[in-house]
């Protein structure tokens, strides 16, 4: 554990321990992966103002997201198939987040169900829904999230149709995997993953399989999802989902000022400036590049968060200083989960927290809530 000092260390270990198919599923973007790469590289174009001779005692990274106290302005993003990165992965990630004091978001496309996760945590978590064109399903899953005590609904609005990821097609991605010769050869060196996976008692895709007519096992799921993702999604349908929920709502996947204005207008409690980690519209700008104009447009009407490309506490600081109330992390915690299960998610959070705290101090700030644009040197093109 002592040799794991940054998120990249977790990624290297993750790569060695998890089947290639699931590593590639996470570590990829759509088409040329330009947006996927720029999400990360654009952070390094923003510089920090180093300050000296400032009292740096009694620092705090604590703040709130959606009115909820958080140990740092970081939430775990919804990630589909998390339970294929490590057996019962959603439960492990939710528990690590709860112990650390940051929110966890469960994806509709999770392996463990809402109820499986609720059974293993004591505080409310958030539930993410795709706006599917089946109101009966939407209503039932929203009711299940309410019954499980979820405290916010995250509606993902940037996946009406799927951005193509070449690696998934080439690998024949499926959960559980089909045991072809390349998969078996890969598994020969990753037997620990297989062994743990065999030990799980969960029903795969527990939010959907067994809850929808005609979908009784994972193999019948892809036809159902292909049919249900809603190419006709519009703001009225989003509004309808918000009404069905009736509680705090986060709209995730907004990357344009006009869309952000619309999201604020219909009453989103928070929006996530996001391009889905570069997995949807390749060629779209990085999220950090779009953050500032969106904060300027709607930051006084709704909480503005961002995700896509966060790999360190320094990235968190830059996003918050640029005006984000908080950030979501996807891959950064998935690397930890695949590398070392629950302990790996905790390690990812510890690394990010320490980096955030130290960077804050070296910028001459004691409170995360006092960060601002005065801490940054931002190149042209970011505003
Ligand atoms: C995702 N993301 C995602 N988003 C969502 O709303 N529902 C989902 O089921 C998924 N699934 C998913 C799987 C994988 C493997 C990844 C990497 C991402 C997007 C996710 O919530 C978040 O927007 C990005 O992961 C943020 O980018 P970084 O932090 O991974 O760079």
TrEMBL record:
Question: What are this entry's molecular-function GO terms?
Answer: FMN binding; oxidoreductase activity, acting on CH-OH group of donors
Family label: Belongs to the FMN-dependent alpha-hydroxy acid dehydrogenase family.
Swiss-Prot/TrEMBL keywords:
Flavoprotein, FMN, Oxidoreductase
The active site lies at 276 (proton acceptor)
**What's a Pfam family this protein contains?**
FMN_dh
Q: Name one GO cellular component term.
A: plasma membrane
Q: Which InterPro entries match?
A: Aldolase_TIM (IPR013785), Alpha-hydoxy_acid_DH_FMN (IPR012133), FMN-dep_DH (IPR000262), FMN_HAD (IPR037396), FMN_hydac_DH_AS (IPR008259)
Q: Which organism is it from?
A: Albidovulum inexpectatum
PANTHER family named in the record? 2-HYDROXYACID OXIDASE 1, S -2-HYDROXY-ACID OXIDASE-RELATED
Sequence positions that bind glyoxylate: 25, 165, 276, 279
Sequence positions that bind FMN = 78-80, 107, 128, 130, 156, 252, 274, 307-311, 330-331
* CDD domains recorded: alpha_hydroxyacid_oxid_FMN
| Name under which the protein is recorded | L-lactate dehydrogenase (Cytochrome)
The record places domain FMN hydroxy acid dehydrogenase at 1-381
């Amino acid at each position: 554990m002592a040799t794991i000092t940054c998120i990249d260390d977790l990624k290297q270990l993750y790569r060695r321990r998890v089947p290639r198919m699931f590593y590639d599923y996470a570590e990829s973007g759509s088409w040329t992966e330009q947006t996927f790469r720029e999400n990360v590289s654009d952070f390094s174009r923003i510089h920090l103002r180093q300050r000296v001779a400032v009292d740096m005692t009694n620092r705090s990274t604590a703040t709130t997201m959606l009115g909820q106290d958080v140990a740092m302005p970081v939430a775990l993003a919804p990630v589909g198939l998390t339970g294929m990165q490590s057996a019962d992965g959603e439960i492990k990630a939710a528990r690590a987040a709860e112990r650390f004091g940051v929110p966890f978001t469960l994806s509709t496309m999770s392996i463990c169900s809402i109820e499986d996760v609720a059974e293993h945590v004591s505080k409310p978590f958030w539930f993410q829904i795709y706006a599917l064109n089946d109101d009966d399903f939407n209503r039932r899953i929203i009711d299940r999230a309410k019954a499980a005590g979820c405290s916010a609904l995250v509606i993902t609005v940037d996946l009406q149709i799927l951005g193509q990821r070449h690696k998934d097609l080439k690998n024949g991605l499926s959960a559980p995997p089909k045991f072809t010769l390349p998969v078996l050869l890969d598994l020969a060196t990753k037997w620990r993953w297989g062994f743990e996976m065999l030990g799980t008692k969960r029903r795969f895709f527990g939010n959907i399989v067994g809850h929808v007519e005609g979908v009784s096992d994972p193999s019948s799921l892809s036809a159902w999802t292909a049919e249900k993702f809603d190419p006709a999604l519009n703001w009225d349908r989003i509004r309808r989902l918000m009404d069905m929920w009736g509680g705090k709502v986060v709209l995730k996947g907004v990357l344009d000022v006009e869309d952000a204005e619309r999201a604020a207008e219909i009453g989103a409690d928070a929006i996530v400036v996001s391009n889905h980690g570069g997995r949807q519209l390749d060629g779209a700008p990085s999220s950090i590049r779009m953050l500032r104009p969106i904060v300027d447009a709607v930051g006084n009407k709704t909480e503005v968060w961002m995700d896509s490309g966060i790999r360190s506490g320094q990235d968190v600081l830059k996003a918050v200083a640029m005006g984000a109330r908080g950030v979501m992390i996807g891959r950064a915690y998935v690397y930890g989960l695949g590398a070392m299960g629950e302990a790996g998610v905790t390690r990812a959070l510890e690394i990010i927290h320490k980096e955030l705290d130290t960077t804050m101090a070296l910028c001459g700030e004691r409170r995360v809530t006092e960060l601002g644009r005065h801490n940054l040197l931002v190149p042209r093109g970011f505003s």
